[in-house]
Amino acid sequence: MTQDEMKKAVAEAAVEHIKPLLESDTIIGVGTGSTANLFIDALAAVKNQFAGAVASSEATAERLRGHGIEVFDLNSVDQLAVYVDGADEFDPHMNLIKGGGAALTREKIVAAVAKEFVCIVDSSKKVDLLGEFPLPVEVIPMARSYVARELAKLGGLPVYREGVVTDNGNVIIDVQDMEILDPKALEQQINNIVGVVTNGLFARRGADLVLMGTPNGVEELR
Ligand code: 5RP
């Protein structure tokens, strides 16, 4: 099985997982990235069974609309039954690194509102300790250099992601070689740096369920 086939298998498994939640007034949260895109494509088959979705990025909103799935503003929604999204890394405690696609802030907001967070990944994303994937941090542009210096004090090597502007008009710093022994504490510590909008650690609100595509099929991890 190729990586793309594993991603497609988890995307389809996620649709099967959420089917019992779908009612005429159900609104779901949808993430960003290549695995989330495959989920959106699979979701199109059941689009008449629920009201619509809240998107975690402009790209996701466009893809949902392309399939005829209504996109709601999060401010008009009280609760999301489920949020389905990919990840760049996940550990055995369901902590994640996200933001490889620069959508981390909206992803974190939509995940916060959802009752259940279903993370869809292929087996290459599984790690014992987070941090091999550089940790993305969304930053207000004028604070970029200051935040980079503060991130260096925490032991990481900050690298400006050239040419990327987020949907919120901000920039991304990727932190390499960060030792992430306590993901919840580090998530909070980075959030406390003035100028940081969000960081890509999803530990305080990690995944509730990981669906992982492997060459032998989809595994459910809780
Ligand atoms: C985007 C993300 C994605 O979920 C993450 O980058 C994984 O993407 P893919 O499914 O393409 O591997 O956090 O900001």
UniProtKB/TrEMBL annotation:
Source superkingdom: Bacteria
UniProt entry keywords in alphabetical sequence: Isomerase
Gene Ontology terms: biological process: D-ribose metabolic process; pentose-phosphate shunt, non-oxidative branch
InterPro entries: NagB/RpiA_transferase-like, Ribose5P_isomerase_typA_subgr, Ribose5P_isomerase_type_A
EC number: 5.3.1.6
Enzyme class, spelled out: isomerase
Catalyzed chemical reaction(s): aldehydo-D-ribose 5-phosphate = D-ribulose 5-phosphate
Binding site for substrate: 32-35, 85-88, 98-101, 125
MF GO annotations: ribose-5-phosphate isomerase activity
Entry similarity comment: Belongs to the ribose 5-phosphate isomerase family.
Function according to Swiss-Prot or TrEMBL: Catalyzes the reversible conversion of ribose-5-phosphate to ribulose 5-phosphate.
Assembly and binders: Homodimer.
Name used for this protein in its record: Ribose-5-phosphate isomerase A
